[in-house]
Amino acid sequence: MEDLLITTFAESPKIADAADYIEKAVWARLGFLNFSDPFVHYFDLMERYPDYQIAVVDRQRDFVVATGNLIPLYHDDLSTLPDGGWDWALRQAAATVDRAPNMVVGLSVSVPDAYRNRGLARVVLGAMRNLAESKGLGTPYLPVRPTMREFHLDIDIADYVTWRRDDGKLFDPWLRSHEGAGGRMVGLCRESMVIRKPVNFWEAWSGQRYEASGRFPIAGGLAPVTIDLERGIGTYVEPNVWYH
Q: What is the CATH number of the domain that holds 39?
């Protein structure tokens, strides 16, 4: 890990551009998440806080190999975290512009497939913690996507997050990474991301035609999409897990 440089987007436009490319490539499969109302209206907050956006650079290749996005905000009760999770964090950050923040929320960690299984995600999580502490804002809170829930949609999120392997470690790999990095599960955010779009939007993403109303899985989704043909709307409500 000595060949890694941990920096922020504020360091240079070159780093910011490279990190943006990495993030878009990593999240392309889940591009439908870009259409929650807070994402559409407030994601430019990332550009407003470049010193809160982390880039991990491979010194030998002079290449960004992982990124992490954080955002500062004010919340009047840190002992109670909202069910809104990711969407709430963006809305709250937008409302914090004219006041001093008292917490940091980590929004995403991005590691390209070619660089996975090298411990880079934990490097980013550690960098998130260090950055938040350096800003005098304690340790970060993260609405975490339990990635393997995609294959267990019939299990309530409250039960799923308790699953552990025979070795005592959490079943879900991304939750396991957060616990391994020293994170503590502090609650659920059952409505972390909400996307309401016309049925044809979901047909384009899923590659299937919906002939009846109902609940349907979508690749990469942590919840089914609820299709209402009478209203012509599909609604996706993603549950996440608050970690501190």
A: 3.40.630.30
Amino acid identity, position 128: M
Q: How confident is the model at residue 134 (pLDDT cuts 50, 70, 90)?
A: very high
d(CA 14, CA 137) in angstroms, rounded, equals: 28
Which pLDDT score is estimated for 8? 94
Total domains present in the chain: 2
Residue 92 has pLDDT above 90, yes or no: yes
pLDDT reading at 45 higher than 90: no
Q: Are residues 204 and 177 both part of a single domain? A: no
The answer on pLDDT for 124 being more than 80 is yes
Residues 117 and 211 both lie in one domain? no
Distance between CA atoms of residues 233 and 218, nearest Å: 15
Q: Which domain holds residue 154?
A: 4-192
Residue with the two structure tokens 């991990």: 56
pLDDT at 87 over 80: yes
Q: What distance in Å separates the CA atoms of residue 53 and residue 225, rounded to the nearest whole number?
A: 31
For 11-25, b where at least 16 C-beta lie within 10 A, e where not — what string? eeeebbebbbebbee
The answer to whether residues 208 and 109 belong to one domain is no
CA distances from 4 to 49, 61, 108, 129, 131 (A): 23, 10, 20, 17, 16
Q: Are residues 186 and 205 in the same domain?
A: no
Residue 1 confidence (pLDDT): 59
Rounded Cα distance, 107 and 49, in Å: 13
Query: Does an H or E element contain 21, and which?
Result: helix 13-27
Distance CA 141, CA 123 (A): 16
Q: Tokens for 124? A: 């980013």
Q: DSSP strand E in the chain: where?
A: 4-8, 53-58, 63-73, 103-110, 142-144, 185-198, 214-216, 225-228, 233-243
